[in-house]
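Human: Respectfully, please carefully check these tokens:
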Amino acid sequence: MKKIAIFVSGNGTNCENLIRHFQSSELARVELVVSNRADAFALTRAENLGVETAVIAKAEFAEAHNVVPLLRSHGIDYVVLAGFLLMVPDYLISEYDGKILNLHPSLLPKYGGRGMYGHHVHEAVKAAGETETGITIHRVSNVCDGGEIVAQFNVPLTNADTVEDIEAKIHRLEMKHFPEVVEKEIGMV
């Protein structure tokens, strides 16, 4: 049984969806949820589902000795970013080479990079008049949103779609596809 750590910074709907998905999996389970914010509601979601949590502040996250021993002590095989807003440091990319997945709310390479997350992405998509958008699941590299694309799923947009409509469409794609892709990728390792 593979063990997953989910890194989050916020509300945690994708985190909860992943935990619930892997509760019935014979392949993997979510062992740990790590956040850089003590007030992230994702921690409450994880605790309510019986998953251990840890808070590692942004400054502490920069140092390998604050993160790697924690992951090793839980036997973590795979790291999944689900709304984690910090750059993953090189030491962690080396430790989990090819085994860190991220979810991005656009069809990369469009609307990726620093500062492009959540509502910022949806606002940019709307402002550009895009006729479609989607999600990208990719491996994490030392280039922000630049890792190998594992899967993309798209959804059509209309001129009438508001930023909130776009966000809702993206959220539905995330809920449907993210756990399946993570499970498939873990099964291939």
Summary: The beta strands are 2-8, 28-35, 52-55, 78-81, 100-104, 132-139, 149-156. The CA atoms of residues 21 and 180 lie 8 Å apart. Helices lie at 13-23, 41-48, 58-61, 64-73, 90-95, 118-127, 163-188.
